[in-house]
User: Fold this.
Amino acid sequence: MGQGNIRIQNEDFSVEEETLRVRESSRRIGGIVSFLGTARDFSKGQEIHKIDFEHYPGMAEKRLSEIREQALKDYDIIEVTIIHRVGERSIGENIVLIVVGAEHRQDAFRACSWCIDELKRITPIWKKETTPKGVVWVEEHP
Amino acid sequence: MVKLRFFAVLKHLVGKDELALDVEKGTSLEKLLNKLVKDFPPLKEGLQEGKILVSVNQEVVERSYLINDGDEIAFLPPFAGG
Assistant:
């Protein structure tokens, strides 16, 4: 498992460990906000049996780093961690984690929300859902 | 020689995830794409409608970009991470 703030990996991550890592990055941090995305069993009226994530190695990590850098510039925050899993995922598994540490909670909430929205918009990661009717490559990012 | 890479649903439409191509010096990305849609018609609609993003060396570029030897050109369908 990687140790950096930006990671794309097959292995599961620990929300507690990543939160602690952000917390320990600065004693100025007074609030930590995190977003955890998990694999759910229903989408667009269909049961989902499993999800496969694919990414463009290199470009995906670059985009996540850009998101982190932009968030640090645009919001009054101190640290950001973004981790996205790829490969075959079962329902209920962890998919993505964003942890934001800031002095105050308002910008931590805003930055975290912005980061996941931006991840969905600009990061070359794709999702294939296996349903009872077959396999579907997801196009929209809700 | 340039390397073309196809991701997600495009791999299945094209039938491969990578393709090496000899490209004449000074060829624009636009010209390459026009040729590609003749060889792989399923790409046509997505490229014309802008649903398929095209990157060169992991950066999105203008269609007027002049291709260099060794470039990696990737075809990226709509993202769905998170």
Q: What stands out?
A: The domain at 6-137 of chain A is CATH 3.90.1170.40 (Aldehyde Oxidoreductase; domain 3). Residues 105-122 of chain A form the longest helix (18 residues). The two ends of chain A are 29 Å apart (CA to CA). The mean pLDDT of chain A is 95.
